[in-house]
Write a structure and sequence with these properties.
single chain; 0% strand; 199 residues; globular; 81% helix
């Protein structure tokens, strides 16, 4: 049997809390779910909750970040593989990455509803990355802009604006299909990305 380190045990408890909260928040809603129910489902003491989170809304922030990290990392991995197969200009790389993220969001409606409630956490994840994988990923996204002739600060601004637009519009389109479906807005997002690079 493998002995877990203290750090591993702490991480396991935090993951249990995030997983329990994800299940409860998507089933019942954030506002209706008490912390007591989250800790009960996670099988940890209530005091443990406050070692990792200030309150339920801090938990929501960290959950959005945690659940989105894998999706963004997967989209960056797909972009890297596609870039190895063929030469892609900067606008095509961003369109490919954006389409990957949108398609993954389409397949995860529960996460979309949580992201919509907390776009700030999602944006900060793409902009600064919480772990080294995403920090490198953010760097790669900024490099796409700088390869297209933008300064570092312009790249950061455009990445922020693009993230805000794609997350907000995609979440609305996925959840309500109104006023347009996500498939209807994709070509417009592509057009905006292409127009940025024609600057």
């Amino acid at each position: 049997m493998v002995n877990m380190s203290v750090a591993d045990k702490k991480l396991a408890k935090k993951v249990k809390l995030i997983d329990a909260a994800y299940n409860l928040f998507t089933e019942k809603g954030v506002n209706i779910t008490p912390i007591d129910e989250v800790v009960k489902l996670a099988g940890v003491a209530k005091g443990t909750f406050y070692l990792y989170f200030k309150d339920k809304y801090d938990l929501l922030d960290q959950m959005v970040i945690s659940r989105s990290e894998a999706m963004i990392y997967d989209a960056l991995t797909l972009l890297e593989k596609e870039s190895e197969k063929r030469q892609m200009p900067p606008d095509e790389k961003l369109i490919f990455f954006t389409d990957c993220v949108i398609d993954m969001l389409k397949d995860n409606g529960e996460l979309v509803s949580l992201i919509k409630k907390n776009l700030t956490a999602f944006q900060s994840l793409v902009m600064v990355g919480e772990d080294s994988r995403l920090l490198n990923g953010s760097r790669k996204l900024i490099e796409i802009f700088t390869d297209g002739g933008f300064s570092e600060i312009e790249a950061q601004k455009y990445l922020y604006l693009l993230t805000t637009m794609v997350a907000s519009a995609s979440c609305n389109a996925i959840l309500t299909a109104a006023p347009f479906s996500v498939e209807e807005i994709k070509p417009s997002i592509h057009g905006i990305i292409k127009s940025i690079f024609r600057k």
